[in-house]
Amino acid sequence: MALAAVLIALPIGATSAVAQLRGHGGPVRALAISADGQSAISGSFDSTVIRWSLTRNTAEQVLRFHSDAVNAVALLGEGRTATAGADGRIALWTLGKAEPDAVLEGHTAPIVALAVSPDGATLASASWDHTVRLWPLAGGAPRVLDEHTQNVNGVAFTADGRALVSVSYDLSVRIWPLSGAQTPTVVPMPTPLNAVAAGADGEIAVGGADGKVYFLTAGGVRTGEVAAGSRPVISIAISPDGAHVAAAGIGGAVGVIDRKARTLARTLVGPGLPVWSVVFSRDSRTLLTGGADNIIRRWNAATGEPVDPLLVETAGDPLAAYAGDRGAEVFRACVACHTLGADQANRAGPTLAGIFGRRIATAPGYNFSEALKRLDIVWTPETVSKLFEVGPQAYTPGTKMPEQRIGSEQDRAALVQFLERATKR
């Protein structure tokens, strides 16, 4: 369906039955809510940004600038926002305008997270080029923090504005002082890290690839951990009242953690597809999630129930015919972006129909990056397994595919065997 048709389908005065936010043509990778709670900004794999009215349940503006997935958004105040994506660029916008006011360039790989300093003067960006950059919003060259040795996946300023926290695949949290000493405090962690949030009381929460949320003091001392689920945590948020942490996972659920009790208070269960982004409303009562099914959902943060009736409705399960197949369950994290059958179209990613024996970046009708077209890879059971063993960024540099690895050799074998059956033309 064309985007224009989607927007027409969400008129002013829409009832709660259509109050979930539909409009993106790909997974919703990033969310932010305005200070007054009246509007939200979302970024998507479809390379667009949408400004939403949360009172009228309508898309008010579509921003088009990035040439690849929009992985991060941040509200800067005074009607301004920042967006960043897999194209390595940051765009600064005045909402209502069709073109960005400024473009910040310097990263050499996808940008996956943004954070704004408490005083609104500095924008931090985290990138898979292993760096964090601190951009003065008044202009000038960024400060580059380059001590991470793997992809940097998250950044957050401490509430007092004195430090920046970054997390990475390199199994570390780094706490960077923003004045005085320049050497960060390095906290070794037991798992790769995907997300970070900092509370008003100074506590730091980080989300791990092992499905746990780890808690640290402002000085970097670990104080506890809570299992949010069995799959990697890919987005986290601390409620403004400080009571809860929401941890969104690649398995499709969101764990809501009681910070004081250090327990899992409730789990929000959607359609079973990855939840890429999560944010609390300013009153801490509502939770917004952005999923791999392209929809923004609203939840009652206190009860765990969906706010909008249609949020509990899901389309037919494309993997229903493979119930009980371990490989199909492993593939479930991919189903939002890839179809399997010859009669099915490309989605955010190319169809996998007939993949085995096909050279990379040659599936018809899909716009592949030039970097992929230059790779000398033919898809076989061995190369598909290798892709998930080392990760897309290492094996297929230049890909739009979200970074994900399958550590279990048995799960990789099950996935390959499933694809061999399911993708035959």
From TrEMBL:
One of its GO terms (molecular function) is metal ion binding. It holds the Pfam family Cytochrom_C. Residues 1-19 form the signal peptide. WD repeats lie at residues 21-62, 104-135, 145-186, 268-309. The keyword Thylakoid does not apply. Keywords: Electron transport, Heme, Iron, Metal-binding, Repeat, Signal, Transport, WD repeat. Transmembrane segments: none annotated. Residues 322-423 form the Cytochrome c domain. It comes from the Bacteria. PANTHER family: TRANSCRIPTION INITIATION FACTOR TFIID, TRANSCRIPTION INITIATION FACTOR TFIID SUBUNIT 5. This is Cytochrome c domain-containing protein. It comes from Bradyrhizobium icense. The lineage of its organism: Bacteria, Pseudomonadati, Pseudomonadota, Alphaproteobacteria, Hyphomicrobiales.
